[in-house]
Design a protein that fits this description.
Largest interface: A-B, 29 and 30 residues
Helix content of chain B: under 10%
Radius of gyration of chain A: 13 Å
Structural class of chain B: mainly beta
Strand content of chain B: over 45%
Strand content of chain A: over 45%
Radius of gyration of chain B: 13 Å
Order of helices and strands of chain B: EEEEEEEEEEE
Oligomer: heterodimer
Number of helices of chain A: 0
Number of helices of chain B: 0
Shape of chain B: globular
Chain lengths: ~120, ~110
């Protein structure tokens, strides 16, 4: 069984640029969530996709957008990058979007640095 | 806005010592999860607690859910260097997922 993978591992961009991060879900999982994690802090929920539809969103501006594909892989797009966007971006997949005790499986993250 | 406050924020102890990490909220949880995150990796689920007053043990780790389901604690007995990491509590309310502020633990050999 393949776990959650993310690409790229590291990325350096300049302010104002756009970036796309990618995530492959664990086999059989139809839900993917994206998080932003500043150094030493807990992850902040960005949004969740369930069967290719956005299924919930945290307190992030519209320049953070996403896609989920029929194979349940996912992209996170960030436009007009700002210095504060520098963080570790995590994706997590789960079997479904409904469970209060549902288990999420996290990828290793993409470290984004905005200069 | 962090709905889950963890304390302490940082903890550095010697191998063999015991420690407790706390997770508090003003809201009632339907359930709560604890994760550990090691450097360069994503969080890994340790346990889910669902019932108020519930106690779960995972080897040297003991997790307790408060009777009112508004707080939780993680106790580690005889800490080892392999326990080093960021400990996160999380509240999974359906299609959103709230993590706590995190406790960074360092166990010194």
């Amino acid at each position: 069984e393949t776990g959650v993978t993310q690409s790229p591992t590291h990325l350096i961009k300049t302010r104002g640029q756009q970036v796309t991060l990618r995530c492959s879900s664990q086999s059989g999982h139809n839900t993917v969530s994206w998080y932003q994690q500043a150094l030493g802090q807990g992850p902040q929920f960005i949004f969740q996709y369930y069967r290719e539809e956005e299924n919930g969103r945290g307190n992030f501006p519209p320049r953070f957008s996403g896609l989920q594909f029929p194979n349940y892989s996912s992209e996170l797009n960030v436009n007009a990058l700002e210095l504060d966007d520098s963080a570790l971006y995590l994706c997590a997949s789960s079997l479904d979007a409904s469970g209060f005790t549902d288990t999420q499986y996290f990828g290793p993250g993409t470290r984004l640095t905005v200069l | 806005t962090q709905l889950l406050e963890q304390s302490p924020q940082f903890l550095s102890i010697q191998e063999g010592e015991n420690l407790t990490v706390y997770c508090n909220s003003s809201s009632v949880f339907s359930s709560l999860q604890w994760y550990r995150q090691e450097p360069g990796e994503g969080p890994v689920l340790l346990v889910t607690v669902v019932t108020g007053g519930e106690v779960k043990k995972l080897k040297r780790l003991t997790f307790q859910f408060g009777d009112a389901r508004k707080d939780s604690s993680l106790h580690i007995t005889a800490a080892q260097p392999g326990d080093t990491g960021l400990y996160l509590c999380a509240r999974p309310p359906g299609n959103q997922f709230y993590f706590g502020t995190g406790t960074s633990l360092t166990v010194i050999p």
